[in-house]
Write a structure and sequence with these properties.
about 160 residues; alpha+beta; Nuclear Transport Factor 2, Chain: A; 2 domains; 5-stranded antiparallel β-sheet; 5 helices; 8 strands; about 40% strand; disordered N terminus; Lipoprotein
Length: about 160
């Protein structure tokens, strides 16, 4: 079993990863303030703005058909997965994705080094890397209430 560690400020929770009949699950071994962890509270304005700017730059690049710039804003694993799935370099592969045209930002939530950016017409998920925020998944739509988002562009 692998241990999973969740950090929030000075709190630490350790859980165990185990495989059950429905796949991997996490059993939390200690109590944690999950509401605080998941709410994005305490995210600095700079982190919120950084995620928002990266997501907007990605969407603007797609609108302008600047696929080279859009590819530079993809997380490395997302870019590799796209190139592998399409069998061509990122630019031409991204051009063929027919991603939705997104409008204004409706909300930004930051959870540590992860972010969700809701735009009119699209939802993006981003991660913060050493060189800035990168798009991990795009063209994401929510499923039923308790199900995760389904994204047409994502890393493996």
């Amino acid at each position: 079993m692998d241990a999973i560690v969740l950090l929030r400020g000075d709190r630490k929770t350790v859980g165990k990863l185990f495989a059950g009949p429905r796949g991997p699950a996490v059993a939390v071994a200690a109590a944690v303030d999950l509401a605080g962890l998941l709410s994005g509270c305490g995210a600095s304005p700079a982190r919120l703005e950084g995620a928002r700017q990266a997501g907007q730059a990605f969407e603007e690049s797609l609108t302008a058909a600047d696929y080279s710039r859009a590819c530079a804003l993809l997380a490395p694993q997302t870019r590799r997965q796209l190139e592998q799935d399409e069998g061509k370099p990122c630019g031409p592969a991204l051009r063929g994705q027919e991603l939705p045209s997104a409008g204004e930002v409706r909300g930004t939530q930051v959870y540590g080094r992860q972010a969700m950016l809701r735009l009119q017409g699209d939802t993006l998920f981003l991660s913060q890397f050493d060189d800035g925020w990168k798009v991990v998944a795009a063209d994401c739509t929510p499923q039923r209430q308790d199900d995760p988002y389904r994204c047409s562009l994502k890393g493996g």
